[in-house]
Specification:
Length: 510
Amino acid sequence: MGIVPVWITRWDRWGLCAGFGNRKVLICIPGRGTCVASPTAGTRGIMLLEVLLVLGTLLIYFFFSKKNEETLPFKDGWWGRGQKPVTKEDSSIRPFKVETAEEELSDLFRRLDQARFTEPLENSCFHYGTNSVHLRKVVSYWKNQFNWKKQVEVLNKYPQFKTKIQGIDIHFVHVKPPRLPEGQAAKPLLMVHGWPGSFYEFYKIIPLLTDPASHGLGHEHVFEVICPSIPGYGFSEAPHKQDFNSVSAASVFYELMLRLGFNEFYTQGGDAGSLICTNLAQIAPSHVKGLHLNMVLVSKLGLSHLLSILLGRYFPGLFGFQEEDVRRMFPFLKKWLYKILSEFGYAHIQATKPDTVGCGLNDSPVGLAAYILEKFSSWTDMEFQNLEDGGLERKFSLDDLLTNIMIYWVSGCIVSSMRFYKENLQKGIGTQKHDKLTVQVPTGIAAFPNEILHIPQAWAKKKYTNIVSFHFMPRGGHFAALEEPELLAKDILQFVDKVEKEQLWKKKGE
């Protein structure tokens, strides 16, 4: 029997009356009463069976089509130079250490010595970007006090590796617990950075997760932490072909985790790492036990969002807003629209012509520092723009800031890191398949108060349908792992504890 149209004409206490196919008759599925209109008794049973079969077919179709839509296709690409070879890719995992030649350092110092500064406007602080008066002080410290060789030792204190995936070398830090309680296994945790950060962002949180007991965080959950560099960032090779986006990165990291022997694992990310980990949860929901984010991205805004923007300040409960949501979001023009206009100019540049600006930054270490430091100022706390030093050392040390900058400089990755914006945004916002799919994996969200834009749980749950933990963090901004490692570690631990004790990952497919 082919699928034929069925339409409902009435469903009351007497039963369901419907039209079937192109027949000019009424059929009846009896309710608690008696059918008020029916064909002959001989055809009623046959027609009822046909309707039930059609409805059953439709239910099966919608059920399975929905399940298919919930999974994002794995992106099996080739990002190496030239054509993909016919021979099997080398899947070996090779030890790696950060090393810098003396010639590279001599070239750096020469460029620092020849830097040309522009005088800032009077009393402008950081409102026009990095203030060159303070930048001079940073460069002076860089030349005379910063010890890169010592920081290289810090970088190399954790085991690092490289492996070839989809044609490019992937760099990652892999830290196993120094000790495990008897009978307990470490839980694999993939942590992904964003821009303009690097794998170094996680160096302060790694010991809190791999050895929580020694830091007063309990011993119930101990992690084996994997921190890869996004391709085109740090010491991961940059893609040589166009269209390497967040789904590509998620697919590469999924392969990485499987190659390391992890069939089930947790993921954590902020900024671009949030998007990559979200995509990974969409690609492999049966492998990702839990997704923890310290930044949520919403790319599709509908009528409900618009109404909540217009009326949420006055009727918060109607839209699922909490008091803290209202405080962080309103007035909306100031705390959302103005921030987008004032803080996202860089994103428009990087999403359109990244190589133009990138060439200059890749040639000038001072220009590179100015570009990156401005983000660490305003994204940590917008109020820091009112300070002459941008508040940079209120939350970070110059050694930490310059180490992150040096990772960009010695690897020459600033251009390729900026291209990631173009690859993700050039086709439009909210137009990709992953934008339209929900996330079924158990999700935990740590909402830091100084994040650039606040996303309320009421908005987030439209994308992440299985939020099991949502916390308003007491302090902190965009670079949470580097700025507030203990706060972030505690939130990850409580999230994983909830997922494990309630076995939520087993229920996500039910």
